[in-house]
Amino acid sequence: MIAKEIFEDIAAKVSGVISDSPLKDVEKNAKTAVTAALSHLDLVTREEFETQQQIIEHLLTEVASLRSEVERLTQQA
Fold it and tell me: Which of 5, 21, 33, 34 is the most interior residue, by most CB within 10 Å?
């Protein structure tokens, strides 16, 4: 996902800087730890989020309309 792509980009840049130093093992361990941490998160893309947001807005409009209709029908009874 997007977070993984960002992490891989950062990791590539850091890797280039420390490829010839003893920090290589630290970078490898840090990458493994961050990847493991990110895999436990339930992340969604911005597009998925916006789609769900539109669905919720539509459903809220429908609920308001149905409440209005129920109120109208209750008053007629």
Answer: 34
